[in-house]
């Protein structure tokens, strides 16, 4: 939940590291720090607060010289956010300095041992224990930095992405990874280290993503050498050429990354179709599926595991897989699934959905299912992420970098991938005639343009947002495929505007929530013309008769609901199973505008981080 950046090369390290940290602030932003080596001395500055605060403090207090440095933006786990607990951390001698993303679970026992050997600690962090453990190994074993890091990490239990350097050896940085993401950017006689590629993409497209339990000794003028932490085996770097450009990272002229990403959905869905949806040939090609088709087709059941918005995409997938492919599906919160001793057999297929590919609970659920022999298929958005590498096979959502903490385009592209998969399996299982299959593929091709159309409601949504921006509660209702969308709409409003909101199956209202309805309660109802339209209309009448304020998401040209609702937002018509790709859009925009009007930090909401890498 932290962002780490490092640089060794021929340029000034300070500007590269600070800009890199700003790009990674979506990962954590409660404190930040930097350590630069100017050839003689380590100049370290760190502070509670944002990277901007670090900039002001560093430029006022330390020398910014040096072509080697490391930096960190934090999301506190061990030790409250304050100056002392922020990174980087020195070893007792002051020779070693480290940054760390992750958690060393056995740090207390290691700390006790080190205290018995005379070490003193200034912070409450597990990271300060790790850097002193490395120092102790250097001293007691006479080991070089690389070796000392390896030995120390073999004594540590937990997750980490670290970068450490030694004032006595200023031409190298040692990095290592287990569970937390770490990428190395390879330039002309320079190296960049970061939690993802966004800090160095403007300098190089060549990157190595470290595998779990791998480390690298990065030395100027030398090839990158990777080693396995456990057995010192040499590992050969798999250098990827990244298809990502700076502009994609920047806000592209939108006020917030979230709004930019909402408007990127037509392109993101099209990119997710690319090379997979071949309507002309009545074909769906998914490399990760084709290789394992028998395994997936003969599954007893599909278990979907995920967290947050990805879990909502899993719920939509349950409706699609059971309705179209007739495969039994169970959708599980990864955090519950991993600990409830679930029954998993080798005839089960587990689908793990994750935007970041780093969510700890989802990763653990995957490992559990693999141990029990299930086939694990991943749906991820980040190339090279831990979940992508941990699963047997998978399909990437090509949403591009999602910077806003509130997930939007990842949600619709997850549903897109899962819809393609369900349709493919339905066809293979003979549940679809060729003509119906073709009809479906043709309709899918229209979705990006229909999302564009749905986005045109933005000005109207902004007006409606202004009416309800001071609400304290809000209810979201949907039936069938749109019940999960109601849950997602409520989550979006909660996480960025801090208004308490709940999503419910519309028919559940009478079993309790209807008691909440009065003239203060805005109720967002998804009432598209497919599926259970008439039943939703009667739910709307129940709300109306209790003076609830109704904002209805309807199919273009709807007249009946328009009579009943206080506000209607239209989306284009499509197949019932595809409506979630459209009905989500106005809910994303509504939560966005309400949050902006309430002055909330839309891209970095309080108490939240983009990827939750600890449980
Ligand atoms: C959604 O807006 C939130 N950021 C959060 O619920 C998120 O969906 C959840 O943490 C799962 O993240 P993942 O998709 O990266 O695994």
Automatic annotation (TrEMBL):
- Residue span(s) of domain SIS: 292-431, 464-605
Spell out the protein name for this chain.
Glutamine--fructose-6-phosphate aminotransferase [isomerizing]
SUPFAM superfamilies for the chain:
N-terminal nucleophile aminohydrolases (Ntn hydrolases), SIS domain
Oligomer status and interactors: Homodimer.
Any GO BP: protein N-linked glycosylation
Cellular localization per UniProt: Cytoplasm
Which PROSITE patterns does the UniProt entry name for this protein?
Answer: GATASE_TYPE_2 (PS51278), SIS (PS51464)
User: Gene encoding this chain?
Assistant: glmS
Q: Which reaction does it catalyse?
A: D-fructose 6-phosphate + L-glutamine = D-glucosamine 6-phosphate + L-glutamate
Provide the function of this protein: Catalyzes the first step in hexosamine metabolism, converting fructose-6P into glucosamine-6P using glutamine as a nitrogen source.
Report the EC number(s), separated by commas if there are several: 2.6.1.16
Q: Which InterPro entries match?
A: GATase_2_dom, GFAT, GFAT_N, GlmS/AgaS_SIS, GlmS/FrlB_SIS, Ntn_hydrolases_N, SIS_dom, SIS_dom_sf
Q: Which GO terms describe its molecular function?
A: carbohydrate derivative binding; glutamine-fructose-6-phosphate transaminase (isomerizing) activity
């Amino acid at each position: 939940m932290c962002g780490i950046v490092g640089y060794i090369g021929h340029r000034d390290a300070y500007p590269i590291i600070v800009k890199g940290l700003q790009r990674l602030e979506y990962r954590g932003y409660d404190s930040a720090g930097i350590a630069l080596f100017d050839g003689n001395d380590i100049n370290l500055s760190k502070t509670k607060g944002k990277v901007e605060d670090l900039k002001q403090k560093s430029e006022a207090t330390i020398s910014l010289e040096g072509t080697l440095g490391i930096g960190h933006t934090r999301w506190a786990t061990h030790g409250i956010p304050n100056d002392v607990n922020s990174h980087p951390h020195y070893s007792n001698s002051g020779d070693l300095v480290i940054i760390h993303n992750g958690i060393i679970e056995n740090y207390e026992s290691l700390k006790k041992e080190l205290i018995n050997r005379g070490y003193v600690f200034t912070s409450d962090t597990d990271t300060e224990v790790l850097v002193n453990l490395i120092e102790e190994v250097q001293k007691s074993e006479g080991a070089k930095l690389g070796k000392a890091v390896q030995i120390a990490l073999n004594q540590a239990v937990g997750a980490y992405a670290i970068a450490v350097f030694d004032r006595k050896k200023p031409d190298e940085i040692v990095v290592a990874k287990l569970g937390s993401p770490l990428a190395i950017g390879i330039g002309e006689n320079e190296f960049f280290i970061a939690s993802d590629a966004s800090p160095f993409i403007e300098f190089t497209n060549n990157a190595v993503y470290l595998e779990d339990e791998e480390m690298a000794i990065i030395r100027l003028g030398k090839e990158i050498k990777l080693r396995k932490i456990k057995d010192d085996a040499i590992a050969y770097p798999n250098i990827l050429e990244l298809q990502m450009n700076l502009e994609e990272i920047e806000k592209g002229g939108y006020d917030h990354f979230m709004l930019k990403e909402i408007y990127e959905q037509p392109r993101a869905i099209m990119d997710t179709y690319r090379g997979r949806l071949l309507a002309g040939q009545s074909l769906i090609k998914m490399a990760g599926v084709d290789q394992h088709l028998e395994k997936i087709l003969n599954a007893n059941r599909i278990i979907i595991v995920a967290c947050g918005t990805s879990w909502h995409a899993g719920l939509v997938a349950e409706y699609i897989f059971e309705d179209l492919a007739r495969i039994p599906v169970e959708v599980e919160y990864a955090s519950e699934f991993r600990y409830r001793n679930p029954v998993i057999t080798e005839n089960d297929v587990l689908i793990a959905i994750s935007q970041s590919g780093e969510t700890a609970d989802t990763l653990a659920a995957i490992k559990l299912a693999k141990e029990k022999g299930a086939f694990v298929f991943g749906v991820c958005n980040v190339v090279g992420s831990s979940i992508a590498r941990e699963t047997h096979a998978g399909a990437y959502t090509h949403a591009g970098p999602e910077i806003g903490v509130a997930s939007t385009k990842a949600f619709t592209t997850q549903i897109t991938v899962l819809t393609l998969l369900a349709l493919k399996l339905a066809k293979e299982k003979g549940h679809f005639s060729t003509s119906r299959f073709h009809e479906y593929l043709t309709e899918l091709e229209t979705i990006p343009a229909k999302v564009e159309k749905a986005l045109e409601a933005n000005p109207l949504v902004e007006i409606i947002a202004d009416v309800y921006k001071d609400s304290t509660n809000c209810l979201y209702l949907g039936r069938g495929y749109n019940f999960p969308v109601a849950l997602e709409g409520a989550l979006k409003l909660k996480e960025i505007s801090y208004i308490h909101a709940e999503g419910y199956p519309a028919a559940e209202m009478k079993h309790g929530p209807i008691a909440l309805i009065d003239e203060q309660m805005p109720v967002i109802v998804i009432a598209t013309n497919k599926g259970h339209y008439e039943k939703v209309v009667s739910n709307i009448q129940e709300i109306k008769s209790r003076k609830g304020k109704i904002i209805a998401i309807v199919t273009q040209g709807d007249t009946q609901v328009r009579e009943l609702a206080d506000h209607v937002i239209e989306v284009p018509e499509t197949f019932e199973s595809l409506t979630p790709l459209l009905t989500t859009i106005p809910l994303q925009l509504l939560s966005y505008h309400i949050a902006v009007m309430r002055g909330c930090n839309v891209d970095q909401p309080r108490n939240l981080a983009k990827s939750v890498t600890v449980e």
